[in-house]
Structures are given as structure tokens and as C-alpha cells.
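ENTRY TYPE: paired fold submission
RECORD: A
CONTENT: sequence, then C-alpha cells
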Amino acid sequence: MSTTTQGAAAGAGVMIAVDIGASSGRVIIGRLPDATSGAEPGQLAMEVVHRFPNGVSEVDGSLHWDAEGIFAEVTAGLKAAAAVVRETGERVLSIGIDTWAVDYGLLDADGRLVGPPHAYRDSRTDATIDRVHAAISPERLYAVGGMQFLPFNTVYQLAAEQDLAGQRALLIPDLLAYWLTGVERTEETNASTTALFDAREVAWSAEVFDAVGVPQLFAELIAPGQAYGTLRTEVAAATGLAADVQVVAVGSHDTASAVAAVPAADAHFAYVSSGTWSLVGLELEEPVLSEASRAANFTNERGVDGTIRYLQNVGGLWLLQESMRDWAEQGRERELTDLLAAAAELDAGPVVDANAAEFIAPGQMAGRIRAAVERAGDTLPAAPGEADALGAASGVDPDQAATVRCIMDSLAAGYAASLAAAAELSGQRPQVVHIVGGGSQNTLLCQLTADATGLPVLAGPVEATAQGNLLVQARAAGLISGGLAELRRAVAADLVRYQPRA
């Protein structure tokens, strides 16, 4: 994948992707070069113009997102993009936004943010889950929306609110789009993750809202490729962008954008969108709303072009990220490459349920993993702080190597179990597994996934989410035509293949 494009044609149209995850965000210019640009025609090229950190903070004992701070960073990124296109003589056609799912901001009657949005890792929903299930059974909730049970689903978050009178709600990407355009809409791939959505009707479910006893606070639905509107005058002035630049809905749930950019040639493929979370599943034409599917805790989320992302959330590289943060705080910080190399030297060891609720919250992750292994009657082979020849060169202690190996084996085992169940429940059996996102660079994880699933793994692109975002915008602007197959052919990626070992 190219990260820059030289010799852009004067007046050429470009798109801007705002891609925000739980730990960082980026603003990216996307181009579809023609034969005169020096790049491969028809293959998407990207240029990152702004990066910024993101994360939750504790406010009055609860975990929150700094939504207004995020928007300030988005504005700074758009200003940087405007400066780039002034130099190249290009024209910005549109902006698309993707973020994580389920979280929302509440607006008052004047359209002002009531307070910083709660973060999904906050524990406030613990007391509401039983109350929601008493009002509408888990079986009925699934039959309507097809959402897997997660304690932070939007339905439980709204039930935890104290007073919603006179308020409106926007999911995080829609909130950012509202601040850019002044238009309130809810993009449907993200709406489908709320457990307040009717999977068959592709509409908000009055039945669920009524049963839970909360008002329907969300705006009219919008599909990927449709426009929210153009920039507000003050946003155009602050960024230097033209006021006629459109903000276009993309797969605003970042996984929807990532799956849209899976470079799949085989119609029967599985995917793992691997980042802070791992989203593991299949692409289907219709939701699977059976009781067996609910019992297996699969989710039916909408994708681009009305597809269904039939998947499970598997606790992802969050376990590794948090363990590394623990070690850094203890003065035992190590390079990721050294940790993975040391882990690869070890034999497969004990595994944990990477999706267990005990791993959702931040802090002391390495200790929690060790405790989970011990509760299962197993042990990691070294105590924290021990040193031996394995770690002498790299500085990696054996307990660090063993913990990382446990995480990698646990993720691969989780992927394999999820894909086997997805195939059984849907009747669609994949021939290949595509790993996209940050985890596609983790050679140990990719090889262990091939081993665990017994299927070849194709790794890449790393930037699938941003590419899917930009390609939906490009199609909306008329720069590319066709369905998902045509979009995927424009994905630029050097794929790495991993064959399953005996």
C-alpha cells in the first residue's frame, strides 16, 4: 500500500477518512490515482496527515470519552488535510468518519452535549442487565436484533441513564458528523450494534424501546454512501476546507469499514479484524436469528451494501497492550518485537478465555491472566521478575514471554472456535481466513491462527478500516463503481500467506 501519492493532478478529487479507535485516531487523505499519477491506476493510495492519542478517563468514578477533545483533534486533522490539498491543487470531495460502536453522546434541547459520553468499559451497566432481561427476555431481544450479549451493549447503557427527558442521542461517529454539519443522522452499521435495532426490518425497534422503558432518542437512519450534509460555515472557516465539502456516511462502525476492505477473492472467506478487539466471523446475505445462534453468542451486524457481519467479539490485542502497560509501570518495559520473539520460542502453553468479562477493564492485566490460568488448574512456567537465558539477550523475563505466548495461543484458539461455530450455524464454510488490521502484522498470531483453524491465513492490509472508509466515499463521489467485489479490487495490499502446520 502506498502512503503518499506524488504528482497529483491539479483539481483531482480526494477523500478524507477520520479513523478513530479506542487508543488513537488518524486523519487520512485518500486518492484513486489514474495512469498519469505515477501510482498504480485504480488502487487506493493513502496519506496520513494527523495522528492523535485517544483513551478513556475517570470522571466522578466513571469512565468517559473526551468527545469534545476528540473533535478538536478531528478539526486539527482536517486543517492539516486542507493545507496539503492547497499545495497539490487537489479538491476535497468528502469526509467519512468511523469509530468504535455502542457508545453515544446525549444532547439537550439546544443540541449541546449533556456531558462526556460514558465509555463501554465502565461498569455502570452491571446493575441494569437483569432489569432489561426482566422486561424483554434475552431470547426475544436476540430474535429482534440478533445481537450477541455484551454487558456494554447500548440497550443496557441507556437503561442505566438516570434521566433522558428532552434529550437526544447520537452514536460517537454520528456525533462528530453532527458537529461538522449540524445534521443529526444515525448510520445503520453502527445502529445495528445497539440491540435496539430490528435486523429484519432494518429500522429502530419500537418493541425494544418500549419494553426497556426508554424513549427512542436516535436520529433517522442513513446508509453507507449517503450524505449527512455539507460543512457548517464555522467548521469550513476553522479548517480551511470549502463549505461544499460533504460529510458522507461510511461503515461508521470501524469493523464494517474494515470488512468492506477485506481483499477477498473467494466468496467463502472468514475474517478477523484484529486490533484492540478481535471481530471474528463471516460475511452473509441474511442474519442468522436462531436460538442456537443466540446460545452461541453470535452477533448479526450490518455491513456495507446490506451485508451481514456474522461474528463474535473475541478479546483482542487489548490483553497484550494492557500487559505491556503493566510491565512499563513496573519498570519492565520491553519492545513488542522482543516479546513476540521470546514467546515464539516457547511451546504452546495454557490458554484463557480471551473474551471473559474479567479482562474488559483496564489495569493489572498480566496478573489477571496469571490468576485465570491458575484457577483453571494450570500454571505459567515462571514467576514475575524471574530471569534466565531465554531473556538474557532481549531483557524479556520468562513470565513475560509465557504471558505473551498464553495471550497469542488464547486468541488463536478463540478465533478457531468462533469460526467453527459460525460455519456450523450459518452453513457457510470458509476456505481461507483473512486477518486485517494491526494484528495482521503479528506473525506469531497469524501462524497460530492458521494452525488452530487448519485454514490458510492471508494477512493484510493493516489499514483495512481506513481503506474501507475511503472506498465507500470514492464510490459515493463516482470515482469507482460496482459492489463490494469492485471496492475490494481497489484495495492495495501486499498479503502474507500462512499455511497451517501439522
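RECORD: B
CONTENT: sequence, then C-alpha cells
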Amino acid sequence: MPQVDIERIESDIVAISRFGFNEADRGVYRQGFSEADMAARQWLRDRFEELGMEHRMDGAGNVIGRFGPADKPAVLIASHMDSVPASGIFDGVLGVVAGLEVVRALKDAEIIPDFPIEVIGTSEEEGRFGGMLGAQAMTGKLTREWLDTAKDEHGFALKDAMSIAGLDPYAALHAYRRPDEIHAFLELHVEQGPVLDLEKTTIGVVEGISGVFKWNCRLIGKADHAGTAPMHMRADALMGMADFAHEIGRIIDEHGTDKSRITIGHVACKPGFPHTVPGEVDFTIVGRDLDEGVMTALAEACERVLSSIARKHKLRFEYEQMSWLKPAYCDDGLITMMSAKAEELGLSHKTMPSGAGHDVQFFCEHTRAGLIFVPSVGGVSHAPDEWTHWSDIERGTQLLLECVMELACEQKDLAPAGQTAKSH
């Protein structure tokens, strides 16, 4: 049976980490369509070339390498190449390198798959411009209007970033992959949370990606002198928001599940002066759950509680829903297969949701799609000290290889581990 080589995997991950590496804080800065991002994509194409794989970059910036026959739907192994500012070295990159290693392992064992395997480094997954461009483009979820209007937090247009990177922005609309071109979609990713590490479990078989709603909220009261305004006469907007923060646990207990999350991530007081009672507070609410009905219940409860708190504190409550993303469910057959393969390899595993978004979520309604997690030490991600043990990476990549062979190789009479197997 083919075996992955952890030394090759480690070498590849370290090599990619040099693109955008910052010595000062030891973080990686490889935002979508930056020079570092495009250099990393060329690095991946060079590796495809070395392996004799057909390769290309599509109009959305996805780098695609193909191994196997040309006339059948492909098993896609994909994750992203870009990073958030000051990221670690594993987020996204692991899934791309693991796909590369799957092809190497099959070639080492002289196995040619019956269905082609495509390794894809997707573009702009981290949302510099507000979406997951590469996955959206491949699954037909991209519009010309969005391409025309998308900007990053500094107001820099997506169209301009793509043009500077040598891409025609509207060519992204031609990156669509029909469902009949895809045999299955698989992604391997670090968990980015603490569950697997705390429970000493090697593999997470993901059942689905939580849906997300985001609100921009405002409580409006009256600014006043912090020394002269009696406490009982104030219309303190921050006190209203603080009361709501204390209610989050109760809202989840009454209307949510163990998979529910509600977060106040950004708060801005106005006028924001130490000696002035806050007359207005702007804040965000982000809610998540794997069940859209639960999401709706949580959202309705948040609105009721905030309206009640506003009346109590003599405030006016306003909010705008910025986005509502439905949950995405992984394929039941792939979940069963991944769990069975983990059992065969003697790997501890559990079925779990993903609270974070991933490329796979756009493929869940497009084809059969599955996601494998390996542990993140301490649950740390999107930070320079993100870490996953190489032994866990090796196990996760071997599981990915076993799953790919199940999907792409019709011949099952493969030699045992340690022996060479050839396709017939």
C-alpha cells in the first residue's frame, strides 16, 4: 500500500512558509493576490511540472495540477494558498501540500488512478475582499457585480489587485467547474480550534460547516457628563451592550445547541472620551450553528433581548444584517468512508462540526464533498504560533491518501504496505 513521506511534506510546508515570512513577528503575510501569494502559486506550478502533471492557473487564480486520465471526472484535493496577516504556516497550505504528497505516493507505488486526481491551490479564501473567490468561482457562486464592487479593508479594489497580479478579473467568471466534471471534493485542514488537541483525538471527520449571520448593531442613548449625570438618569449605550453580552449564555441555553456560537467581536463607543457617558455604541454580532432553524431562533432571540434592554436603558436599538450564510453539510457517504478508513489505520477519530469557513462549504451543494481535520496545538490558528505536530500531519495525510485511492482507484488488489503496487 502506498505510504506518504513526512519529510517531503515538511520540506514543502517550510518552503511555502518563506513566501511572505516576516522576521520581526515570525508571521506569514501572504494575502490574496499579493506578490508573496502569486510567488507561492508559481512554486506550486513548478512542483506540478516536476511531477509531470498537467497544470494551469484558471481565471480566478486557482492553481490546478492534474494526474491521471483526461476523459473522466476528477477527484479534487484542494485548499488555499493565501493567508491572513501574521498567520502560521499550516492554515490552508497543509491541504495543498497533502494533495501534492498523495500524487507523489501514488507515483512512487506506480499506481495510475482510474479517475484523475486534481490538486488545487485555491485563491483568496481568507476573505481579504470579503469572500472565498477561488471556491466561489469554481462552483458558480461568483457574479460580475461582486467582482466590480469588492474591496479590501483599505478600499483597494479586487479588480485592481487581480490586474496587478497579471489576471483578467472577468476571466474568473470562466473558472466554473460543472458537477459532472467532479467525482468528489476532499480537503485536509488543521482544526483551528482546541477540541481534538484537548481530547487527544487524531482525526476530526467534519459533518458540516456552521452557518453564519453577521449584524452591525447600534444602541443610541445620550452622551452626558461623567461627573454630573446621576446614574439613574443616564441613557448609557455601553451599559445596554454590556447587559446584552451577559445574556448571550442564556440565549444559547434556551434557543441554541452545543454547536451554537454568538460573538461580539467589535465595539466602538461614541464619543469615546473618558469623561463622557457613551451616547452611542456600535458593535457586531456574529452567530453560528450547524442548523439554519437554530440560527433563526438565535437571531430572533438576540433581537428580542436587545429591544428589551434598549427600553430598560432608555435607548434606541438599530441593526443591519450584513450577511447570512446557510450551513453546508458534508456528504454522508464520504463521512462514513473517512471514519471507516480511520478505523482501518487505527486512528482515533470523531465526527464534529466546523465553526470556521473553508473552501469545502461551496462544494457541498455542488458535488459530494468531505473535510478532514488534524489537531491544532492549543487550538491556535491565524497566528505565528499556530502548530500541528508532524506526526499528526503524517497520519492525516495518510488517511487522505487512503480516501483518494478508494475514490479514484477502481482496482482494489493493491499490495500491502511496504510493497510496490502497480495498476493493471
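NOTES ON RECORD B: Confidence is low (pLDDT under 50) at residues 412-424. The radius of gyration is 24 Å.
STATUS: closed
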